[in-house]
Specification:
By secondary structure, the protein is an all-alpha fold. It has one domain. It has helices spanning 3-32, 38-51, 53-76, 81-86, 89-120.
Length: 133
């Protein structure tokens, strides 16, 4: 099998896996009925109806990514959520702004790298950002 075909299969499997993972959490909630409070489940279903399943799954994936990056940034700064909560309001606001900027920069850089890699491979389709932190 050619490496180009293998890369295409890998991207497809990776994309489907991420999508199924996001959708699976809603499916589990629907079947178990106990993983999420009813209001949270209703909110998720309303968002799926409003945005569409693909857009909702993408948003969920990005939120999880941001959470992981936030934890990484806090760890790098040797801070915890409790440390942030204990800070005076102005200091906390400043640190929160810095953390948000760092997360945005990390995502922007990852997107740029993913797009450059896709361009070198001659791909014209949308680039799926799939970062494991």
């Amino acid at each position: 099998m050619s490496s180009r075909l293998e890369a295409g299969i890998f991207m497809s499997i990776s994309s489907v896996s991420a999508f199924i993972g996001a959708v699976g959490s809603v499916g589990s909630s629907l079947s178990a009925g106990q993983n999420q409070p009813s209001s949270t489940l209703d909110r998720d279903l309303d968002q799926i109806r409003e945005k569409g399943l693909s857009a909702w799954a993408h948003d969920q994936q990005m939120e999880k990514l941001k959470e992981k990056l936030r934890a990484q940034v806090l760890s790098d700064k040797k801070l915890s959520e409790d440390d942030l909560a204990a800070m005076p309001t102005e200091q906390r606001s400043s640190v929160e702004t810095e953390i948000q900027k760092m997360i945005e920069d990390m995502i922007r850089e990852a997107m740029k790298t993913a797009m450059e890699e896709a361009a070198t491979k001659g791909k014209t389709q949308a680039v799926l950002l799939n970062i494991s932190v």
